[in-house]
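Two folds, back to back.
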Amino acid sequence: MPVLTYFLTALAAYLLGSIPFGFLAAKARGIDIRSVGSGNIGATNAMRVLGKPAGITVLLLDGLKGWAAVALLARWVLVAMLPGDISAAAREAGLVTGGVAAVLGHNYTCWLKFKGGKGIATTAGVYVVLAPWALLIAFGVFLLGVVTTRYVSVGSIAAAVALPVAAGFTQPSVAVDGVTAALGALAVYKHRGNIARLRAGTENRLGQKKQEGA
């Protein structure tokens, strides 16, 4: 695959992933979501700060941009720039490039000084296309973690660990498996603040009002 095709796929997917829906939803109400709640622009903080309808909308939009980056944008670039006889490996590499770039766009958005969310919803959107069975398993682990602990962060971290393992069993692709492991590690890293609060006993449970200054 030409380098230019990789670059254009990554750039377009990054810009799509960088759209900060949580920030924009709060801004529409005159709120800077980065200064309230946990300070995160993702769906969990949006739900706490803006309410369930807005939080669910942000969750869906963050997931949608991950899906669109792979299912629509990356595939469009591949079709537009490469011949019809492109190899399966080259096509997969293009889709993976789009997915990774979208997650990085969400986590490090250029519109907010390269500070963004944690990438869970956007990663889920990507894996609807790349490895749906692995995503389904990880989602089950997420639900189990949230239901048993009432910590969304625990469910998210558990899902981030489970996704690479599930991909290894369900997706016979070294490229997808390797990228999944890297994205899982990144998701755990992005939750380092939550891990510190869990250890300190100050992490907020599901349904609990966010503590001031937390």
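---
second:
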Amino acid sequence: MNLSQVMKELSSMGSEQTKKNWMKHGAREPFYGVKVGDLKKVVKKIKKNHELSLELFDTGNSDAMYLAALIADENKISRRHLQKWVRKANWYMLSEYSVPWVASESKHGWNLAVEWIASDKEKIASAGWSTLSNYISIQPDDELPIDKLEKLLDLVEAQIHSAANRVRYTMNGFVIATAIFVPTLHEKAVSVAKKIGKVTVDMGGTACKVPVAVDYIDKAIKAGRLGRKRKMARC
């Protein structure tokens, strides 16, 4: 499928109800309102397609941008393109999910994550923490910089309650991810989770809630998920 064919199909899949729902969560025009499940049907037809993913993201259409991440080739995407993507991501489904997924699976994952969390721009900093969470969920422990992750946990403990709104959300997610996916740092992450307690985030009037890190970690451990790595970040 080429760009025009994909955009035509996305247009046919859109619905006003889905569009209305996405807008409550912060989605911005232009977009058709395509359900993620329907986007995955398109992915099955396309598979990975590096050039098409770049074209789709450049449309500025949120549905197309999300699809771009789902079909992106993590082995071909460049640091420059990922930097461009994180700047163009205009709401959290793109900046905290689709772009970090691809970034974390690429060879640029760690370096970009560390760079992004230092940004004074909320969406980029939140993208950085999300990228870190995804990165540690797929990388073997013996390839992770444990000492640096430990320092990042300290940073979260010290700064989370004064951080920008969405950054608080993804910092909280990083503590959870570390506790679940990095057994070496489990006790440390749980300790930080207890210290930070409940994290308040403005969810824009939606029904979405911020997980209490300690409770979320406890449920994951009881489910036998400690140290169980994911095959890929994208889902």
